[in-house]
Amino acid sequence: MSDILLLQAAVALLAFFCAGIVKGTLGVGLPLVALPITATVMPPAQAMALTIGPILVSNLWQVIEAGILRT
Fold it and tell me: pTM of the full predicted structure?
């Protein structure tokens, strides 16, 4: 793995860690924190693609915890 890829991975992990703290505290804000940070070390389109999965997972988790899917 090249140094650039290691830097991108490290920054992305740090960005999602910080974004997870914000999402856990406020209930919103994962993409608002993660996307600009990851876009500093990779193209914005790639950062957006990387952010989609965690957004879906965290929102699904939030829906399940809120009990919205129960009938």
Answer: 0.81
Sign of the torsion formed by the C-alpha atoms of 29, 32, 38 and 44: positive
The one-letter code for the residue type at 27 is G
Residue 71 lies inside a defined structural domain of this protein: no
- Total domains in the fold of the chain: 1
> CB-based contacts of 15: which residues, under 8 Å, 6+ apart?
33, 34, 37, 38
Tell me the per-residue pLDDT of 37-69, one tens digit each, with 9 for 90 and over.
999 999 999 999 999 999 999 989 888 888 877
Cα(38)–Cα(70) distance, integer angstroms: 35
